[in-house]
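Hi R.,

Here's the chain you asked about this morning:
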Amino acid sequence: MTKKRKNKKSVILTTCLSLFTLFSVNVCSQQNPFIQHMYTADPSARVWNDGRLYVYASHDIAPPKGCDLMDQYHVFSTDDMVTWVDHGEILRSSQVPWGRPEGGFMWAPDCVYKDGIYYFYFPHPSESNWNNSWKIGVATSKYPAKDFVVQGYVQGLESHIDPHVFIDDDGQTYIYQGGGGVCKAGKLKDNMMEVDGALLTMEGLTDFHEAAWVHKRNGIYYLSYSDNHDDNLNDGVEGDNRMRYATSNSPLGPWKYEGIYMNPTNSYTNHGSIVEYKGQWYAFYHNSELSAKNGVFNDWLRSICVDKLYYNEDGTIRMVKQTTNLE
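And the predicted structure, written out as tokens:
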């Protein structure tokens, strides 16, 4: 997927990096992308009971080979949206007993907490023929950022990527997955590893590509996702994937398409999450500003970012203003 691209400017400002411990990095200043000591993508943002916001991200390994070499998930956290701690690696493909023999292909993950256990969901193929053998793996831990052990994979799903798990106010858990224009979802059993009943196709999503994420605000369910926009369309919109969303009165739809809340970044892909933290809503996403700044611009050397997200009085989402603040 090689494309010609227009030059894009980056605002380069000073930040600071310092070693925090042997296994973590303390990243200071309001920089964006907010992780700049490694390449990361597909941020899944979660707020846990310890008062910190955690981001579970995939890892683009340089030099890249498309998305083939993605591996070695890291977890990052903050308590002020300024200083971020890299808690280090929590899982790699070689630790997946049923996984693809050649490794790699550790794509966009998610994590939820239920009944004292953190459940880390990750897509990974089980065969060398990776395109048709995707499974959604499950690793568990008593801690949010260490000691994860693979327990198996979710039974009852199809061969799709991009797992997302949503726990509703009544405790019912839902799982979403998709890619290639298809978004599927269903209930999870209490064991968090089996689909309860049939998967449903999410209806009403305009131009769905991948990266489903559900959040709830004022009793309304929001399903956000990336679309299929392509820079080569020459439609006056520079860039590729945009972030869209739909709303519903039910976590399984049907959905009412609402619009676009984020324009393309300078990466071929985008993958986001939306979360409230300390009274402010945030949109997480990724771009390739860091690799561009480092002189090795590449669609598959991405970096996770965050910007504030706002709602209109009628509950619709305002367009997110993307910011850049590089070291």
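The mean pLDDT is 92.

Let me know if you need anything else.
M.
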